[in-house]
Design goal:
With about 280 residues, this protein is an alpha/beta fold. The two termini are about 35 Å apart. The protein has a single domain, classed as Vaccinia Virus protein VP39 (Rossmann fold). A seven-stranded mixed sheet has the order 5-4-3-6-7-9-8, with helices on both faces. It contains ten helices and nine strands. The structure holds S-adenosylmethionine. S-adenosylmethionine binds next to helix 1 and helix 4.
Length: about 280
């Protein structure tokens, strides 16, 4: 594999792999082989990382404009609120995990934070219009030293990870004591009327519009991928198990989107084992 590694500073390496980070095996790179007879496009656990990486590579150039259309621009507002919940001081070192094309990073830059982005899709990183350093890497194996960051953010990516709990453990390891994490993702409204409207838009309209303007399989995957998302209670428990305290959960638009924020506590098993 051709790989260029650039040291940005003590903590950061910028990897520019020219081949997929996760080998795609014998799957078709256009994702068409994903659909099974019941219309599900969700890959099996062992293939998920490779399939997700290839899918985001494919839709990268139109990703942001599709977000804008499919959420009526609300995704940007939700990221802004999430950043408020992060609540770190100016100049703080914040890693945006699964940064994609850099929507969150641009917000960090505007707030005078020292932002860095990490994603495994080279296509998404190549389409990121940001000045912050970008790292090609895996959210579940962060290339940072223990206690080296003040904040971690993650936007609309939890569902795409193979192991959310591993990502929380890694975030806890790289955050300083008192460091903050803020995550935003899609959700499911509870109110029956909102739930019905949301189902029509998200499960029926989004795959059609996304399919016409970008990629059919990817925008079928989008609503189906909520099946990977644990309940908010479970996510909060996972954060707690990973060494976070002051865990908060809030929802937007009747539950169509949700955010989690938390503070890294003094003690966690992983950092203790790593001798931090
Ligand atoms: C829906 S996009 C979100 C992008 C961006 N955070 C945003 O707010 O628009 C999901 C991103 O997660 C990335 N991703 C999924 N699993 C990952 C992993 N294990 N490590 C790094 N990036 C991952 C994908 O490549 C993709 O860019």
């Amino acid at each position: 594999m051709l790989e260029e590694e650039i040291k940005v500073d003590d903590h950061i390496c910028l990897y520019k792999n020219l081949e997929p980070l996760m080998p795609l095996g014998n799957r078709s790179p256009d994702g068409t082989s994903l659909a099974n007879s019941k219309g599900s496009v969700l890959p099996a656990d062992e293939e998920k990382a490779a399939v997700v990486e290839a899918m985001f590579d494919k839709i990268a150039s139109r990703y942001e404009s599709l977000n804008q259309i499919l959420t009526f621009g609300l995704d940007k507002k939700w990221r802004k609120i999430t950043l408020k919940y992060l609540g770190v001081q100016e100049g703080s070192r914040v890693l945006d995990v699964a940064c994609g094309t850099g929507d969150f990073l641009r917000l960090l830059e505007k707030q005078n934070l020292k932002g860095m982005g990490l994603d495994f899709s080279l296509g998404m990183l190549q389409n990121a219009q940001v000045t912050s350093p970008l790292i090609r890497g895996d959210a579940q194996n962060l290339p940072f030293k223990n206690a080296s960051l003040d904040g971690v953010t993650c936007g609309f990516a939890l569902r795409n990870l193979t192991d959310i709990s591993e990502f929380f453990q890694e975030s806890s390891r790289v955050l300083k004591t008192g460091g903050r994490i803020a995550l935003v993702d899609v959700g499911e409204p509870v109110n029956p009327l909102m739930k019905a409207g949301h189902a029509i838009w998200f499960k029926k309209a989004v795959p059609i519009i996304g399919g016409l303007l970008s990629d059919k399989t990817a925008y079928k995957y989008l609503p189906q991928s909520t099946a990977y998302l644990p309940s908010s209670k479970k996510i909060m428990a996972m954060l707690e198990d990973s060494g976070f305290i002051a865990i908060r959960h809030s929802t937007f638009l009747g539950g169509s989107a949700q955010l989690f924020s938390a503070t890294r506590s003094v003690y966690t098993q992983r950092t203790q084992l790593a001798g931090n």
